[in-house]
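ping. complex inputs:
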Amino acid sequence: MSDDRPARFEAVYREAYGRITAYAARRCDSPQDAADVVAETFAVAWRRVDELPKGQEAVLWLYGVARNVLANHRRGETLRRARSAGLDAEMADLYAAPADRGVEMSVIAEVFRNLSEDDRELLSLVAWEGLEREEIATMMGLSRNAVRIRLHRARRRFSRALAAAGVPFGMERRMVPAGRSL
Amino acid sequence: MRNVKGPEIKSVEDLIGPLARVRPGRPGGEVSGTGARTLLASVTAEEPTGRTAGDVPVPAAVRRYGLRRLTLGAAAVVLAAGFVVGPSLLEDGSGGAASYANSAVAIEREGGDYVARIKDPFAEREEFGEAFAALGLKVGLNLSPASPGAVGEIFRVGTSGGGVGRGFVAGTEPSGCSPSEPGCVMVLRVPADFTGEAWIELGRQARPGEAYRNHGSAVGRYGELRGTDVDGRPVEEVLAEVRRRGLQVEFQRIIVGDGGSLSFEAVTAGEVGPAWTVWDAEAAMAGKVRLMVTPEKLDDNPMYEPGLGPGGLDDLGESDEPGKSGEPGRSGGG
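pong. complex structure:
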């Protein structure tokens, strides 16, 4: 009865690989870190394959694992950072920013980076992973209502921080990607 | 999608989309690539061991959204054998389990749960009650018309006494199907060691013209105003979108009491001014939405503010489809 596990895992792996790698890459500062997060996520998932849900929920479950792996990873990183803060700043200059990022986008990026990790993660799950509230609720083990409230507040905090930074809403349409509503 | 809203406001997600290193909607790595294949091979080379030291926690039971679990304590009392004899009451030989079926529902013992498969969602509550009672369970089950997102979900539950460490779980079979599809069966799992009394309201499809009993969102995935941002907008703007979509509308006024408690009062369209503020939109029935309004524009959405009624952040046990039900002052909907 356990013989179908490799096939089941592989099917989920194929389905989720693109999304989990994107999730990691969007949140890690270096490709090495992202690769570590992806590998660890799938390693944990395989060890716990008996708990892997069926269908679409499997991907959400994997997002949840990846989120925990990433959080773990960041804790380690914070310790390292404490020792190499100066060096970090220097390296950051070398780590080239995308050339097409205008001044306005830099400000938005800066404001976004300064949000709490929870707010950033929620907004990213909507904007980057394209998850619906229900899916985020499933992934995080929260009620839909809780997700709705948290998203509402995260959006509001972001809006206020943007306003404080002098970025009004209603900027040029060119910045609209795959628009999602909540 | 957001066409009601004037051009001056856009979603914050629209702003941060371009910040993503991997563009939204794009995959990261290529699963057919060497890296992906190598990783898969190396990961699955070992026997899956379950949790090992140093592993991060994995998400607990992934839940169908809206699904309700009640945790009522840990005392486990095994049901005694020897139940009321019913039309198809069967014992399984262990002396602790049985099954029962009538035209409304078939209940079977599966592991630690009784699994009730709903055969007729429109059956009267007495028929469900009879089946549970035959197995010694004091479970009052009622199937009520619900908005599409809450069909198959538990949207109200109450218990008295009893001791279970797990909960009542609603789902569908085949797993994940929508109850509106043919062949899709609603399933309710009741812990076999539940010794108390429970009242469960499970969403079923509404008949034409039947008002929903839950308070589902009209702007969410299943809502008829899906994609519309109503939060804090003037009534006239939201109404324009309601009309554009050919929907009917009703109103409830939100009354914020001392200490932030909320109550709701049905108001007629004639009483509601065009400049009143809309804070939320609920599905009232097919083709009809309920706008939650206040005469004045408040600083923050009263439905969601911390400490102000239903939206309190600590209120994690409830979900938004059914979640606002059961609160004091809340009318039955529709």
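Chain A touches chain B through 89 residues (CB under 8 Å).
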